[in-house]
Amino acid sequence: MDVAPGRTLRVERQRETLRVVIDRPDRNNSINDTLMRDLHAALDEAEGDPTTRLVVIEGSGPVFCSGMDFGDAADSNRADDGLAARGGQVFYGLLKRLASLPRVVVSVVDGRVTGGGVGIAAASDFVYASARSSFALPEALWGLLPCCVLPFLIRRTGFQPAYAMTLSTLPVTAEHAARIHLVDEVMDDARPALRRLASRLTKIDTSVVADGKRYFEQLRQPAERHEQVAVTEFARLMSSPVVRGRIAGFAQNQLMPWENR
Amino acid sequence: MDVAPGRTLRVERQRETLRVVIDRPDRNNSINDTLMRDLHAALDEAEGDPTTRLVVIEGSGPVFCSGMDFGDAADSNRADDGLAARGGQVFYGLLKRLASLPRVVVSVVDGRVTGGGVGIAAASDFVYASARSSFALPEALWGLLPCCVLPFLIRRTGFQPAYAMTLSTLPVTAEHAARIHLVDEVMDDARPALRRLASRLTKIDTSVVADGKRYFEQLRQPAERHEQVAVTEFARLMSSPVVRGRIAGFAQNQLMPWENR
Amino acid sequence: MDVAPGRTLRVERQRETLRVVIDRPDRNNSINDTLMRDLHAALDEAEGDPTTRLVVIEGSGPVFCSGMDFGDAADSNRADDGLAARGGQVFYGLLKRLASLPRVVVSVVDGRVTGGGVGIAAASDFVYASARSSFALPEALWGLLPCCVLPFLIRRTGFQPAYAMTLSTLPVTAEHAARIHLVDEVMDDARPALRRLASRLTKIDTSVVADGKRYFEQLRQPAERHEQVAVTEFARLMSSPVVRGRIAGFAQNQLMPWENR
Fold first, then answer.
1. C216, B151: Cβ pair inside 8 Å?
2. For chain C, what is the domain count?
3. B214 touches A: beta carbon within 8 Å
4. Residue C224: CB atoms within 10 Å
5. How many angstroms separate the CA atoms of C208 and A68, rounded?
6. Is residue A245 domain-resident?
7. Among partner residues C88, C158, C180, which is closest to A235 by beta-carbon distance?
8. Does C168 touch chain A (CB under 8 A)?
9. Residue in chain C nearest A231 by alpha carbon
10. Entry pTM
11. Looking at the domain assignment, is residue C32 inside a domain?
């Protein structure tokens, strides 16, 4: 198996944005080990550069991402049982990395998204989709379930919309996906929204993005722990001299935080 | 009390669909012990027949289901305290059975749904409702709460919409019910949607419907367990020779799963 | 610091409604210790009067509430670290009180709501907002997170909409806030809706409002406990002689519960 980086993705940096284009049009932009490794490498690059604030994931052609590469999966099956468990672990790890990366991740969808591709979108911080996009979980037709996708999809949609997509296997439109919060905004040109978001993100410390993602994870614990979690995190953030300086600058001189660094 | 099956329900089989009509128009289609037993018997019938893929629940007349039969509840009250606890247990058990049945359950609503009737709809996999339908939880007016309904309603709507219905006791329209995911689709004629769903379901193993329902229950545990649950279930499903055969058939010969049995 | 009651709020009783107007227009209706104490005092008044069923919270002028008073926070910072922890605890306690008060709490929003102000709205049982209202969580710009707000916001919106507001820091419109259930209804004149709600609430025992709020908290525990919680609470409520009397009155004489006291 050829694992040369850059083979499955096109990656380009533009100011504060790292743009990652899934580019396996001959395999319907499906996910194999190489693509997962290449995507991790791109995220390493984003994480290693303090000026990168935004990672934008797109798909080349009419398919954003079609999920697991069945050709590679069929090969693995010949080998041994442990590979399936490892495949699930590696894919879950990729989705977890998207969700916890100390940068803001936006999936810009223009086309079909199926199976594991829905996981990549769902694990992104924001999903912008064109009106012609569609989202489907056909796993049950194969005797499978979208096991790794569902924790990230349910985080966005709640129980019922994810359940309905899984049991029916029918695709939903971008408009429907927006109503269930799988898509944050339907727009045929994502560039103005990306510029607006990037402009905000240059005013936010990347450490706060990391703090925010970690804090939201803590709030997915049972509700009885929320009060302690909230009070502890608030006290920790307020003890930062940087934060205190910004608050004093505003209180005394009406300085906004980004004027006070 | 007469418990002859068929007394509270009309049940008919049509190809892959078992149609169950709640038929106590003189008691506003309210729920008593007989109806719960009859409904369990109908679900037994669906579960015992491998060709049945879909259970459709309807109500006769302008009321889909009005919840607990207060006439019977008043009788029970005369007897002893334990009956109320048993009544809650039996009703919760019915809702749990609807939610875990290895068949797809659709409530087709055309009219008023109140109290426990909202539970029957909420515990169904899909709810299709006509525009004139309405949903209400009037329990608080009686000094009660929709205790058994709420876990199933919150699963669909999240916290706030269920909370608002409970505290206000005011009915919501079908349109509103769709916005909060208590209803999956508003449509005056459910037959095309049922046909589309049935056509998909005949391509899905009933064991996968059971797997899917069980897996979604596991994902309602605290978030820290999700990764392990996901990876384990994915590995289990991928180890099936049937699944492997389908994947290989697609990878090698572009066969869709239903062409490869 | 002057803690005279009535300094930060205007409070007036009108029949079954206690109206509380946040009134610090010179400080953008921001939250300091005095306001929190005054608000607790108003809630004490509501809770002490059995004829009060509804607490309505409004803001004077174009800002409903702008969150933490940075002037006071800057003062506290001079003092010591413990104050930040205490501030979080006190604010969380206020939100928890709004959410558990045995009265129905409605925030009527007409204007901008930011930071902790979103918490006051989110912790309310109902939020009615005019179309020109907006909601924003700018905390990340300061290096902070809306720690205490989020558990109450997520309860309403689920994970994704709260996450998007926190990471983007961008305001959302009232219309968007309604789609994510931060707002229950968008209306430029809240009075008809308040009258309709008040008319229902006079028919509901205040003890049931308390029971309902407590029961919903129990249902935020992991799902495996829901059945036991539901069955136990149903049996407890059904054992009340008042409830039994109402059910018998309906079953035997078609009396509605409020005709049967």
1. no
2. 1
3. no
4. 11
5. 51
6. no
7. C88
8. yes
9. C88
10. 0.93
11. yes
Question: CA-nearest residue of chain C to B167?
Answer: C209
Q: Do A257 and C143 touch (CB under 8 A)?
A: yes
Please report which residue ranges of chain A form alpha helices under DSSP H.
33-48, 70-79, 82-100, 116-123, 149-157, 159-168, 174-179, 191-201, 206-218, 226-238, 241-253
Contacts by C235-243, CB closer than 8 A, 24 or more apart: C235/B81, C235/B84, C235/B85, C235/B88, C237/B143, C237/B144, C237/B145, C237/B147, C237/C211, C238/B73, C238/B77, C238/B84, C238/B85, C238/B87, C238/B88, C238/B144, C239/B81, C239/B84, C240/B143, C242/B143, C242/C205, C243/B142, C243/B143, C243/B144
B-contacting chains (≥3 CB pairs under 8 Å): A, C
pLDDT of A131-150, one tens digit each?
999 999 999 999 999 999 99
Does a structural domain hold residue C239? no
- Residue B20: is its pLDDT beyond 90? yes
**pLDDT recorded at residue A77:** 57
CA gap A77, B247 in Å, rounded: 9
A236: Cβ–Cβ under 8 A, 6 or more apart, which residues?
none
C244 to chain B, closest Cα gap in Å: 7
pLDDT at A60: 95
A-C Cβ pairs (cutoff 8 Å, strict): 140
Size of interface A-B (CB pairs under 8 A): 139
Q: Across residues A15-35, what is the average pLDDT? A: 95
Q: Is the dihedral of CA A99, A101, A104, A108 positive or negative?
A: negative
Q: Give the mean pLDDT of B4-20.
A: 87
**Residue B226 is assigned to a structural domain of this protein:** no
Q: Which residue among A143, A164, A166 places its CB closest to the CB of B205? A: A143
Mean pLDDT score of chain A: 92
| Interface membership of B250 toward C (CB under 8 Å) | no
C254 touches chain B (CB under 8 A): no
Q: What is the CATH number of the domain that holds B175?
A: 3.90.226.10
DSSP letter, residue C224: G
Q: Which residue of B has its CA nearest to A167?
A: B209
- In which domain, by residue range, is A167 found? 9-188
User: Model ipTM?
Assistant: 0.93
Which residues between 97 and 126 in chain B have a beta carbon less than 8 angstroms from any beta carbon of chain C? none
